[in-house]
């Protein structure tokens, strides 16, 4: 189980190394999972329970769903969640489709000026998103899409980072395989469907998860574009009506849990491909 002192086999950790490793993992786990568990516990606690006790009591004495019912009464949370879901699903679909084709073009095709396009995409990553907020808003307003969910969706329909991720995955496909398929008469669509897609499916799952989380959690852009409260997304709606229940952290915790559910569902369906894509990027990249 552990390497003896003086042993030349460094592949086997010592007992002290194992203890230190698992102690560090446990510490990181507490830091990452602790706030979530506390929020989940708080959302089920009634007004009589002390949520700030130390050490924290993570198991409610009298669990209740009243906090969730109260949030639904104060805020049209399900309407706002539906708006967020529409924007997020549209963002995922557009990013997956557009990033796949653009990544294929940059990663597998040969054309003049390809590296100039790559340089332009990379340069956009040097600036924070807030730099383009004004120009994006002026464009959306000129298109007549201000105060609409289309206006919230369009700026995030494609991301330069997602295109570069897919392009990197496409470059790992041997060019000889693609050339052989071309010689055999395969069309571009057939090459993408039968050769490229099976090899980049993991990375596309990473793109889908990042696109969904980014669109679902976005606050600044929907706040700028939307002015009608009936069209708010969940993040804007919660913050806009935060003063209505800010005195009760139990309700805030319940709203947080409601907002977290779609992300958990999304990740649970894509985790197998997500970790495959992360592993491929780490090994091949």
Largest sheet: none
Q: Which radius of gyration do the C-alpha atoms yield?
A: 24 Å
Overall, the morphology is globular
Q: What is the count of β-strands?
A: 0
Indicate the CATH class of the largest domain: Mainly Alpha
- The SSE order reads HHHHHHHHHHHHH
CATH structural architecture of the largest domain: Orthogonal Bundle
Structural class: mainly alpha
Span between N and C termini? 33 Å
Low-confidence stretches: 281-285
Give the strand content: under 5%
Question: Can you count the helices?
Answer: 13
CATH superfamily membership of the largest domain: MetI-like
- What is the average of the pLDDT values? 82
Model description:
The chain is globular, with a radius of gyration of 24 Å. It is built from 13 helices and no strands. The two termini are 33 Å apart. Helix 2 (66-74) packs across helix 13. It folds into two domains: 15-64, no CATH class; 70-284, MetI-like (MetI-like fold), CATH 1.10.3720.10. With 285 residues, the chain is mostly helical.
List keywords for this structure.
2 domains; mainly alpha; 285 residues
Lay out the secondary structure.
Blueprint: H1 15-43, H2 66-74, H3 77-108, H4 114-124, H5 133-142, H6 149-153, H7 160-171, H8 175-183, H9 188-217, H10 220-225, H11 234-240, H12 242-245, H13 249-284
Summarize the structure.
The protein contains 13 helices and no strands. The chain is mostly helical and 285 residues long.
């Amino acid at each position: 189980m552990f390497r003896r002192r003086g042993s030349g086999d460094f592949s086997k950790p010592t007992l002290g190394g194992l203890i230190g490793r698992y102690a560090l993992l446990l510490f990181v786990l507490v830091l990452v999972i602790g706030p979530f568990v506390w929020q989940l516990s708080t959302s089920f606690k009634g007004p009589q329970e002390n949520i700030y006790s130390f050490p924290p009591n993570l198991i409610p004495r009298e669990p209740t769903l009243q906090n969730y019912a109260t949030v639904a009464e104060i805020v049209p949370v399900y309407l706002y969640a539906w708006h967020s879901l529409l924007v997020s699903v549209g963002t995922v679909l557009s990013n997956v489709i557009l990033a796949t084709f653009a990544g294929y073009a940059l990663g597998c095709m040969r054309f003049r000026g390809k590296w100039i396009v790559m340089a332009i995409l990379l340069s956009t990553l040097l600036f924070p998103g807030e730099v383009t907020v004004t120009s994006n808003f002026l464009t959306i307003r000129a298109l007549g899409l201000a105060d609409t969910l289309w206006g919230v969706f369009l700026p995030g329909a494609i991301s330069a980072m997602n295109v570069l991720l897919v392009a990197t995955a496409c470059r790992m496909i041997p060019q000889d395989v693609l050339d052989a398929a071309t010689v055999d008469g395969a069309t571009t669509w057939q090459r993408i469907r039968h050769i490229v897609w099976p090899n980049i499916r993991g990375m596309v799952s990473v793109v889908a998860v990042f696109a969904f989380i980014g669109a679902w959690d976005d606050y600044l852009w929907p706040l700028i574009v939307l002015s009608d409260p009936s069209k708010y997304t969940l993040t804007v709606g919660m913050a806009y009506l935060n003063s209505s229940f800010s005195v009760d952290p139990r309700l805030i915790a319940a709203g947080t849990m409601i907002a977290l559910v779609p992300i958990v569902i999304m990740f649970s369906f894509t985790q197998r491909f997500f970790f495959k894509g992360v592993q491929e990027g780490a090994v091949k990249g």
